[in-house]
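Ticket #4471: structure export looks truncated?
Reporter: QA, pipeline team
Priority: medium

Steps to reproduce: submit the single chain below to the structure queue and open the exported record.
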Amino acid sequence: MHLAEMSRKPGGLMMGWCSSGSALLGEAMAAADFAAITIDLQHGAQDFSDALRILQAIDGRGVPAMCRVPWNEPSIVMKALDAGFEGIICPMVNDRAEAQRLASYCHYPPRGQRSFGPYRANIAFGSGYVERTWDELVILPMVETAAGLKNVDEILSTPGISGVYVGPKDLALALGQPALDTPCKPVQQAIMHILARTRAAGKLCGIACGSAQMLADMLSAGFHIATLQSDLQLFMYGLNRQLAEARQLRRPAA
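Actual output as written to the record:
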């Protein structure tokens, strides 16, 4: 089952997020219960070579992977798809024109302008890859600016776009609110508006979540994809809990 089909399963998908540049952590996340994983090239501490190694480790576990590209720019979008990522998350998409450019980079002519060169995608997905990309790739522009929020309907109406992915912290800052792990009420209202418009358009809606509670709430609300923090955040969370427990249990020196 490809990612586009998986994303429409009842209950939604829990997605992991790799930002550390570690193939070992990526493989560990794939071995856990994440249904899909995104490798972050926008804010993550990794370059494309790291991302490719992480992708191969994840693929070895049979888990689909997306790439958040650094920007809405053709070379990195095409390079990520050629490497075998099943989807693209693109930051800071503000309107239909920008969404159209993103879609054009992801799809082959005559529907787009993607250049032919699926050097690893052909290995990963086999014959017929090019013909299947229109239906099977998951292309999610991020709605995280005031303009993106205003223009969400026209972004969603763009052919070749699978839906949108909400960046709550950038959205909060764009609305003059603090970037909190649990969004404040005005940001929550904006998030629910994006979800409602996306579901009305029959498309996929994803979101980054700052906590397990937020993830559960977003999937219950109807999001198709919800991301639980990142590998580094989860590592620090576990590290801090274990250190606190060790300090509490340590006996004082005699």
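Status: closed, not a bug. The export was complete when the record was re-opened. Leaving a note from the reviewer for reference: DSSP finds 13 helices and eight strands in the chain.
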